[in-house]
């Protein structure tokens, strides 16, 4: 499989992704799935320019990701798949687009309608429902900001919320 890391991160592409996660998982390119960002070319270019030259960044809508991800999976290149929330990934799975059985959930900032479940981890009810959906589909979620820091798993905390 050419998808080496699936990550939910509300900052999408930033220094920790480029300097730490690329040391752990092979990465020739990053596929960002986010409808709003795919329509905002200026902001999209900021993310594209943040990556080093050897890592190509593709920013797709959910609909385009459904079409393009199977091609990426068949390729010889290694990709990170990053979404801002788990909702995009849930939509991919609901459309029979498999991306593996492991998600690393990075930072998710506090918002008015969120519940804080851990350090730098605040989720909406819909986001927790998506995590539960993944759990029931045998996809492991590891809440982990950086590779060498201990995180926690959705399977360890889910009973507090369900």
UniProtKB/TrEMBL annotation:
- Keywords assigned: Cytoplasm, Kinase, Phosphotransferase system, Sugar transport, Transferase, Transport
What name has this protein been given in UniProt? PTS system mannose-specific IIB component
* Keyword field contains Transferase: yes
Q: What is its main location?
A: cytoplasm
Q: Which GO terms describe its molecular function?
A: kinase activity; protein-N(PI)-phosphohistidine-sugar phosphotransferase activity
Q: Where in the cell is it found?
A: Cytoplasm
- What organism does this protein naturally occur in? Oceanotoga teriensis
Per the record, what is one GO cellular component?
Answer: cytoplasm
Residue intervals of the PTS EIIB type-4 domain = 1-162
One short Pfam name that applies is: PTSIIB_sorb
- What's one GO BP annotation on this UniProt entry? phosphoenolpyruvate-dependent sugar phosphotransferase system
InterPro entries assigned = PTS_IIB_sorbose-sp, PTS_IIB_sorbose-sp_sf
């Amino acid at each position: 499989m050419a998808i080496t890391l699936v990550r939910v991160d509300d900052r999408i592409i930033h220094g920790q992704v480029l300097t730490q996660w690329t040391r752990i998982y092979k990465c020739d390119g990053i596929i960002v799935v986010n409808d709003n960002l795919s329509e905002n070319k200026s902001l999209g270019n900021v993310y594209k320019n943040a990556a080093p030259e050897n890592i190509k960044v593709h920013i797709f809508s959910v609909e385009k990701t459904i079409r393009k991800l199977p091609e990426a999976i068949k390729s010889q290149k290694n990709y990170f798949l990053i979404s801002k929330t788990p909702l995009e990934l849930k939509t991919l799975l609901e459309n029979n687009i498999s991306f593996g059985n492991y998600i690393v959930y990075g930072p998710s900032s506090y918002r008015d309608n969120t519940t804080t479940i851990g350090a730098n981890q605040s989720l909406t009810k819909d986001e927790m429902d998506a995590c539960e959906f993944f759990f029931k589909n045998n996809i492991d979620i590891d809440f982990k900001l950086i590779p060498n820091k201990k995180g926690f798993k959705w399977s360890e905390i889910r009973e507090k919320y369900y």
